[in-house]
Amino acid sequence: MGKSNLLLELYSNLGTTGALTFSSKTLVRKMLNNVNFKGAKLIIELGGGDGSITKGIVDKLEPGAELLVFEISKSFCSSMEILFPQDNVKIINDSAENIYKYLEGRNADYVVSSLPFSFFSPELRDQIIFQSKTALTANGFFIQGCYSYLLKNQFKKHFQNVNTSFTLKNIPPAFVMVCK
């Protein structure tokens, strides 16, 4: 799927994508600077979109590590399956609230998310954040890129520590919340 078709999908489903454009390289870098890829065995990405964050993760995955990418848009999934044919990258066309169905008894070192939580009902938000926290190892981190600082309070309901940073180099400017 070409970039113009991906943009059409993005704008056609603004309620589920929650973005005006795809994540900038600066935002991706800022999010992934919080990931220690050395020794990470399983990483989960929520909201794969056009694959910009996925690519950043795949480029740094160690041999033997696995990436599970959750995306509800079939079009985005089809595009990502072409972009990321590696055996250790699984593109999953399902809601992030169903993480537990795909873990096979494992826990993730990181959950990296660009989900538009501001567009979700409070119940769905809580369910996805709860599933993300449950999916993590004891030393795992949940990393969220978002446009609203107010979401910090939502994450604090589930995580003891929520550290926030900001980047202007994204449209619109974005926050990165690192939760433990």
Low-confidence stretches: 1-7
Strand line-up in the sheet with most strands: 3-2-1-4-5-7-6
Radius of gyration: 15 Å
CATH topology: Rossmann fold
Task: Count structural domains.
Answer: 1
The fraction of residues assigned to DSSP E strands is 15-25%
| Amino- and carboxy-terminal Cα gap | 36 Å
Report the structural category: alpha/beta
What is the helical fraction, as a range of percent? 25-40%
Mean pLDDT: 91
Helix count from the secondary structure assignment: 7
What is the CATH level 1 assignment? Alpha Beta
Q: How would you sum up the global shape?
A: globular
Strand runs, count: 7
Find the CATH superfamily. Vaccinia Virus protein VP39
CATH A-level architecture: 3-Layer(aba) Sandwich
Largest beta-sheet characterization: 7 strands, mixed
